[in-house]
Write a structure and sequence with these properties.
alpha+beta, Elongation Factor Tu (Ef-tu), domain 3, 3 domains, six-stranded antiparallel beta barrel, 66% helix
Length: 335
């Protein structure tokens, strides 16, 4: 362990002067005056005995000079000691203040270190929580991806089913067109048969004179008419089955042309609705026509045309649908 230096030497080193400078200062003016008075020849000679040898006198003078120098040095040392004590106390107080300040700085640094350690622990915990959250979010994302894949597969199946349904609807529409055509042909055949029957009755009446021939002809025509009626009844039964399956209103088939338009305005009085449409005489519209009303995939009911003008017409809601008829809805004589 190194030897601790004395406070006096430490102070001298801090102040920047040597130990000799510390203990020696030039004598003050008062001290010099005293020494000069003591060393005056008249004063010294008065003090010496008259019978003393020159050598003795020389030694006495040297002793006096040395004594004066010693007294001056002692006085200077006393003054220097007082200055040094004041400086030493000031330096001690400064060192104590510096130590206190250093201790305060150390305490503050320790507090910052503790705070930084706490912040490090908090950041570490936050990091662990963030890693856990990222892992959970990754799992959720993977789950969402699997669900999206399942939904895409279901959507593909729905699209395939919709395509099949469209094909089915197209086939049913073609079958309905064929049934309608057959029904028209049957009506024409029945009308022809009735005309033939009327002609036969007229011929039978006119040919009463030729009874046997007329009876045979009437019998043949009756048999043919029965066959035609049986065929017509059979086709009517088939037509009723088709109507029951596809829910077709036969009164609309061939009764009015294919027309499409939109609702210009609508007004309800209680539960009864009155509308204006953008079709008129110029479009071939006639009073009594009926239109189905829809918007997108929503069926809103059926309207019956009451009054027809040149370019517009008024109608009344005849059959309510899933929602009230409003302006902008589309209309068609056939869906």
């Amino acid at each position: 362990m190194p030897k601790k230096a004395s406070p006096l030497l430490d102070h001298s080193r801090r102040e920047g002067y040597s130990f000799f400078q510390l203990i020696w200062k030039p004598p003050s003016a008062a001290v010099l005056h005293c020494v000069t008075a003591l060393l005056r020849p008249s004063f010294v000679l008065n003090l010496l005995p008259l019978n003393m040898s020159p050598v003795g006198k020389l030694f006495v003078v040297l002793n006096l000079v040395l004594a004066a120098l010693f007294v001056g040095s002692a006085a200077n040392l006393i003054g220097t000691s007082g200055d040094f004590r004041a400086k030493f106390e000031a330096s001690t107080a400064s060192a104590a203040a510096a130590a206190t300040e250093h201790e305060s700085a150390l305490n503050e640094l320790q507090a910052r270190l503790d705070q930084a350690s706490g912040e490090r622990d908090r950041v570490g915990a936050l990091k662990d929580q963030t890693v856990a959250d990222v892992s959970a979010l990754t799992d959720d994302l993977e789950t969402e991806r699997r669900q999206n894949a399942d939904m895409r597969e279901r959507l593909s199946q729905i699209q395939v089913a919709l395509g099949n349904l469209e094909d089915t609807n197209r086939s049913q529409g073609q079958a309905l067109a064929r049934v309608t055509e057959e029904n028209a042909n049957l009506r024409q055949e029945r009308n022809s048969a009735m005309t033939v029957r009327d002609d036969a009755v007229a011929a039978s009446t006119a040919a009463m004179s030729d009874k046997d021939g007329a009876v045979r002809q009437a019998s043949d025509l009756t048999v043919e008419l029965r066959r035609v009626n049986e065929r017509a009844d059979k086709l009517d039964a088939q037509l009723q089955q088709v109507v029951a399956i596809y829910r077709v209103d036969l009164s609309d088939i061939g009764a009015q042309p294919m027309l499409e338009g939109s609702i210009l305005s609508s007004e309800y009085v209680g539960d009864t609705g009155y509308v204006t449409i953008n079709l008129g005489k110029k479009d071939g519209l006639q009073a009594g026509y009926t239109f189905d009303v829809y918007r997108g995939g929503t069926y809103k009911g059926r309207i019956h045309v009451e009054t027809v003008n040149e370019s517009v017409a008024s109608a009344m809601v005849q059959l309510a649908g899933n929602a009230r008829v409003t302006a902008g809805d589309r209309i068609s004589t056939r869906l």
